[in-house]
Design goal:
The protein has 178 residues and is mainly alpha-helical. The protein has 8 helices and 2 strands, in the order αααααααββα.
């Protein structure tokens, strides 16, 4: 007959114990083994929240693509360049590194990005295909008036420049005629 020393020792201890105390200990262990409320891992909840698609961010597709491109460049510079163990060596390693940076940039941009596109591209709007600066006004007749003033200011500066150029060239042509 084979013996199992740890099992035999436990069996002898259980036989030597007072039956009421052994039953109380067994019941206590059973109650601890099966909790009334199931265990919920908070990491699972956070992961599900992160994976959920954001509800309409309202950012135009072109802004998101621009931000993805900028973030891809950031990610490319942040990824290890001289680590063949991660991406492999040579041209294929560079390709995998670039693909990872591209996917990271696109994913970050889809999840809301870091606000690069709104800051850089959000300071103008298009009217009839022309880019009009906001100049501190977001919409309505004030924005149209601000854009008109900006256009008039640009036209005035260009007119002064043309006049100065004509005066300068006119003086030279008058001297050449003599």
């Amino acid at each position: 007959m084979a013996i199992s020393p740890p099992g035999d020792i436990l069996l002898e201890v259980a036989r030597a114990a007072v039956p009421e105390q052994a039953e109380a200990a067994r019941a206590r262990l059973q109650s601890l083994a099966k909790p009334d409320t199931p265990f919920e891992d908070p990491a699972v909840e956070r992961t599900a929240a992160v994976r959920a698609e954001p509800a309409g961010t309202g950012v135009p597709e072109s802004f998101m693509r621009f931000e993805a491109l900028v973030l891809e460049s950031f990610m490319q510079s942040m990824l290890p360049a001289e680590n063949d163990a991660v991406f492999g060596g040579g041209l294929s390693g560079e390709m995998w590194r670039g693909l990872l940076a591209q996917q990271l940039g696109e994913t970050l941009a889809k999840r809301g990005g870091i606000g690069i596109a709104e800051r850089i591209l959000g300071d103008h709007y298009l009217v009839d295909g022309r880019k009009v600066p906001l100049a501190g006004v977001s919409s309505g007749p004030e924005a149209e008036h601000a854009a008109e003033q900006a256009t008039l200011s640009t036209a005035l500066v260009q007119d002064i420049e043309r006049g100065a150029f004509k005066a300068l060239v006119g003086d030279r042509s008058a001297e050449e005629a003599k």
